[in-house]
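Re-run requested by the PI after the first attempt was lost when the workstation crashed. Everything re-entered from the original request form. Ligand of interest: beta-L-fucopyranose.
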Amino acid sequence: MKKTILTWILASALVACTSQPQETYYEKQVVFPADATPEQKVDMVSRLVPTPQQLEWQQMEFTAFLHFGMNTFTGNEWGNGKESPELFNPSELDCEQWVKALKDGGFKMALITAKHHDGFCLWPTATTEYSVKNSPWKDGKGDVVRELRDACEKYGMKFGVYLSPWDRNAECYGDSPAYNKFFIEQLSELLTNYGEVHEVWFDGANGEGPNGKKQEYDWTAILAKIRELQPKAVTAIMGDDVRWVGNEGGMGRDTEWSATAMAPGSYTHKKEAMGALGINNMSKDLGSRELIAKAQEAYWYPSEVDVSIRPGWFYHADQDERVRSLANLVNIYYRSVGCNSVLLLNIPPDKRGLIHEVDVQRIKELSEYINKTFANNYVENGNQVWKAEIGQSKEYNVKANAMVNTFLIQEDIAKGQRVEDFLVEVYSNGAWQYAAEGTTVGYKRLLRFSDCTPEKIRVTVRSTRATANITNVGLYYA
Ligand code: FUL
């Protein structure tokens, strides 16, 4: 009898398993079989998922850029690499002030320009003389990267580094094997001596003219070094985990696919493959069905919106009056975090080595706005997982007499990005009314509409690539 029961349990388990097959997921990249139909390609893309590092990065939402270096003291945006290290001399550098301000501003990570295009290093590197060690600051004994790292540790802030591939000071720049070695050495110092690093940022800019130096970067070796030394770090822009949104104005796309036909910046075949698809970083469409039908592969390559709180990336005193207004930053928040992107907001420390009072105040206002707006979700049970099939609707009750004007929706991106089109309606005085509509959702989508006091809300997934995994629906008053 015992044996029969056991056989029955095993058999039913088997039936349960076979009737609900496990979905196959593709982490970070999927290459389509040569004979794949457009439908098969879209199905595969719907099961493309982030790596654990990419997922953790996306969940940060709100990260800070710190442009600080030689340009802070010369007033330039791009130095020429010939400025004297004597010029670098912050009078009261205090990285704890930076990190405290960022923490109060709700930021989860601070990312510093350890080296900008001029080649001046903010840490006492062994690779070049062009660094803080030859500056008057702290008699050449200082290390900005260390001070920032320690402050991040103290206040529980993640830490990232920007290391400019373009280097206008290094003599070996343009002698490709020599500079690759030099660059990897710099990277190794940063990734070995400063604890955990969560993002490594490689800018794509290169201002060498037609007769300039031509450097062929060994991205394979560079990225392999990062994976070896800092497995938790994502690599951005010229890296292969995080994609540049395509502008520096804080404007994410309405339709923002993290599962995209766009190949990462560091891949050698990128130029050719993207040329064949007719897309670049700035293209409006990076992931539609039409584009995927033409593509041979797809990537989990999510968007990062990098934008400065001031007109320049570096601090310039004459821009103190031109710090972005709260309304402008709020708009950027909706266009970045609210458009399935991570915001990387630049707040450049000044010549004193402090974040300027105006900027401190503004990021505080921004965080107060965000905290206040999203403190109360007026939807009841909005966080119950909803497995939505194409065309399906779900109604939610809204807390009594709640005035709302902001809608939030999230997908479980660990199971892929799937929603293509959705509608939001509100119910009041016995009738349903249009409130908002959108295309992609991804990690997070925010939509704003006119003030109203609905009794219920109805969300319809008008189109999805496979069963959509909606994890959160919210209504707020901004
Ligand atoms: C650009 C650089 O040239 C700017 O100076 C800045 O660092 C920005 C984030 O990226 O491409």
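Saved to the shared folder this time. The two ends are 65 Å apart (CA to CA).
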